[in-house]
């Protein structure tokens, strides 16, 4: 959503719309995480009055979808791909292969036995 | 040898006081597991590398120095070649008359 997006692009990696969107979602999630956790605590606490818990449930479900952690997806920082991304390198499998074979990734070498 | 329930509860109480944890002998769901979770926001938000100073920023900062931007030079060179072959972009039409000149049906 455009209201969350940074006015000036603050990304230093490969940029496309999906990466910008995911980056925005990450920042919005980080901002709202404390509030979400507080609401979740109220919901999970069975000793609190049922009314308060129901209200917290409603409030949590009505928060913007960009504040949800499930909206976030790891993407390749060299190609923007959303599938087959190796978490340790933040690269998609093919980018990983090309960079590993080129020797750009320290400590990675092709297995052979 | 069995220990009475009350003594175990006392022990738990003292344990909770010392380690400042929640005393909850009946095993109620207090939602403390959520309070124990650490906030993932900062690590999640730091996934993509942030924008750092680029070559253009450096040039803008130090205008007095002559710098060689290879990609920019390559671009200018390719434009030069295209123009010399007559394949360059058409010149910008400044007036309405100029822009109308070649319009209409193809003959």
Automatic annotation (TrEMBL), chain A:
Pfam families xref list: Ribosomal_S14 (PF00253)
InterPro entries cross-referenced by the UniProt entry: Ribosomal_uS14, Ribosomal_uS14_CS
Gene Ontology annotations of biological process type: translation
GO terms assigned for molecular function: structural constituent of ribosome
Matching SUPFAM superfamilies: Glucocorticoid receptor-like (DNA-binding domain) (SSF57716)
Organism encoding this protein: Acrodontium crateriforme
Family (UniProt): Belongs to the universal ribosomal protein uS14 family.
Superkingdom, taxonomy of origin: Eukaryota
Keyword terms of this UniProt record: Receptor, Ribonucleoprotein, Ribosomal protein
Record GO cellular component, one term: mitochondrial small ribosomal subunit
Keyword Ribonucleoprotein: yes
Annotated protein name in UniProt: Glucocorticoid receptor-like (DNA-binding domain)
KW NAD (keyword) present: no
PROSITE patterns reported for this sequence: RIBOSOMAL_S14 (PS00527)
From TrEMBL, chain B:
Ribonucleoprotein among keywords: yes
A single Gene Ontology CC term: mitochondrion
Family matches, as InterPro entries: Ribosomal_mS33
Ranges of Basic residues composition bias in the record: 84-94
Keyword annotations of the record: Mitochondrion, Ribonucleoprotein, Ribosomal protein
A Pfam family the protein falls into: MRP-S33
Origin: domain of life: Eukaryota
Subcellular location: Mitochondrion
Residue segments, region Disordered: 81-107
Entry keyword annotation includes Ribosomal protein: yes
Family statement drawn from the similarity comment of this UniProt entry: Belongs to the mitochondrion-specific ribosomal protein mS33 family.
Matching PANTHER family: MITOCHONDRIAL RIBOSOMAL PROTEIN S33, SMALL RIBOSOMAL SUBUNIT PROTEIN MS33
Entry protein name: Small ribosomal subunit protein mS33
Protein species of origin: Acrodontium crateriforme
